[in-house]
Write a structure and sequence with these properties.
The chain is built from nine helices and 21 strands. The chain is α+β, with helices and mostly antiparallel strands. It has three domains: 171 residues, Up-down Bundle (f41 fragment of flagellin, N-terminal domain); 91 residues; 98 residues, Alpha-Beta Plaits. The strands form seven sheets. Strands 7-6-20-21 form a four-stranded antiparallel sheet, with no helix packed on it. Helix 1 packs antiparallel against helix 8, helix 2 runs antiparallel to helix 3 and helix 2 packs antiparallel against helix 7. The longest helix has 56 residues. It starts with 8 loop residues before the first helix and ends with a helix.
Length: 475
């Protein structure tokens, strides 16, 4: 190899290697001082792009968690207010039950009603003044709210708060009694649907007159079919005496008369008889426990009714040996059937092609205009109406409360999931961006040693051209 002085290749080589060892040293020192593996795009361009997207997701997830917590606070505010409204309704219903009792005078009912009216006013105040961040929650004006519970667009949960709970908005009832008595044929499976749900077959009861065709059996079939929110009540039919002001008057020794109600013979007379209307009524009522039928006087007429809506099957047998006799119920067999009354907190749709219930082939029973705002307990009838309207209001309120409870559980699940995603995304971001101090400490030690060695070698390389002087001096 030629010995030259103008070009020191060994020095140039040492300088190049020294520069190469300086770059890792600078990188390691930068990572150790910042704590980051990527300090600029040149460190890892692809990794930086991924990390930037992850940073956006992490910040979005943190805000989404705060959003979900705010939503929980809003729903809890509404649910707490509804709890107080529920308590008020329960108290109103309790007072209505108390007022419906016959032991109360009109003065007692008036005093009870004062508390009812105060509770109604408080319910309306709660509905109109319960707010969260200046937004009224329970009067129906809030509408549907969409909560952003994710880091990206469209990751939302919607909650409808459109149902108003003011006292002028709840308590309506749909209630009607069929225009005609139930048919003489029982309900078969699929014969009748109410609000789209099929009514099961009617089955005869165990007592006299409770045939499968009776209003009693049909009401029981409806109530046993699990039709949400709909209640059926059997309403008695009324059998009116055929002769006004009459009991049983037989004017000949050969005359006879017997009266059978629901297979039970309640009266039997032979020969000359003179039984007044009141005496015959008392005789019929003597067997009420067996027949289920009660006799009452309505002006000059005697009326037979069955409180549970069972049929009133009446058979009167008469032998007239002489002049015409006077009897309340003429000879022959009759069947008096009851009516069905349906009630619910919402509209009722009845489909009954064979008119088993008496509402016709199809009927819609719409909610009335009455609300909690108009109830009072000043009379027994009003107290009974109050109970029905409170039950309707409670159904609306408990349905809304159930929805709020369900959404609260969902928000809690959302929060849990967001926290889990945040944890994992943060860990992934850390693996890309954060410096490994152990590795960087080893790198800086290595780079420092290489630097020291490079400087030493460069010093020696720079001194090599001086060997030429030895050659010249020796000459």
């Amino acid at each position: 190899m030629a010995l030259v002085i103008n070009t020191n290749m060994q020095s140039l080589n040492a300088q190049r290697n020294l520069s190469k060892s300086l770059m890792p040293l600078q990188t390691a020192m930068q990572r150790l001082s910042s704590g980051l593996r990527i300090n600029s795009a040149k460190d890892d361009a692809a990794g930086l792009a991924i990390a930037v997207r992850m940073s956006s997701q992490i910040r979005g997830l943190n805000q989404a968690i705060r959003n979900a917590n705010d939503a929980v606070s809003m729903v809890q505010t509404a649910e707490g207010a509804i709890d107080e409204m529920t308590n008020a309704l329960q108290r109103i219903r309790e007072l209505a039950v108390q007022s419906a009792n016959a032991t109360n005078t009109s003065l007692d009912r008036g005093a009870t009603d004062k508390e009812v009216q105060q509770l109604i006013q408080e319910m309306d105040r709660i509905a109109t003044q319960t707010q969260f961040n200046n937004q009224t929650l329970l009067d129906g004006t809030l509408g549907t709210k969409t909560f952003q519970v994710g880091a990206s667009s469209g990751q939302t949960i919607a909650l409808s708060m459109s149902t108003g709970l003011r006292v002028t908005q709840i308590g309506q009832i749909a209630e009607a009694t069929a225009g005609t008595a139930v048919s003489a044929v029982g309900i078969g499976v699929g014969d009748v649907t109410i609000n789209g749900s099929s009514v099961g077959a009617s089955v005869a009861g165990s007592a006299n007159g409770q045939a499968a065709s009776s209003a009693y059996a049909k009401a029981l079939a409806i109530n046993s079919s699990g039709i949400t929110g709909v209640t059926a009540t059997a309403v008695t039919g009324t059998k009116v005496s055929d002769t006004a002001s009459a009991g049983v008057v037989l004017d000949d020794a050969g005359d006879s008369y017997s009266l059978t109600i629901n297979t039970v013979t309640v009266a039997s007379y032979t020969g000359i008889t003179n039984i007044s209307q009141t005496e015959l009524m008392d005789r019929i009522n003597l067997y009420s426990n067996q027949t289920g039928v009660t006799a009452t006087l309505n002006g000059v007429d005697m009326e037979l009714t069955a409180a549970d809506g069972r049929n009133i099957n009446l058979t009167a047998a008469k032998v007239d040996a002489g002049a015409a006799d006077t009897i309340a119920f003429a000879a022959g067999t009759t069947e008096t059937r009851g009516f069905i009354k349906l009630s619910a907190a919402d509209n009722i749709t009845v489909t009954d092609a064979n008119n088993r219930l008496g509402f016709g082939a199809s009927a819609v029973i719409a909610k009335d205009a009455g609300t909690i705002s108009s109830v009072d307990v000043t009379t027994a009838d009003n107290a009974n109406d109050t109970m029905k309207r409170v039950d309707s209001a409670l159904q609306v309120i408990t349905t809304m409360r159930a929805e709020l409870g369900a959404i609260l559980n969902r928000f809690e699940s959302t929060n849990s999931n967001l926290s889990n995603v945040l944890e994992n995304i943060t860990a992934a971001h850390s693996r890309i961006m954060d410096a490994d101090f152990a590795a960087e400490a080893a790198n800086i030690t290595k780079s420092q040693i290489l630097q020291q060695a490079g400087i030493s070698v460069l010093t020696q390389a720079n001194s090599l051209p001086q060997n030429v002087l030895s050659l010249l001096g020796g000459r």
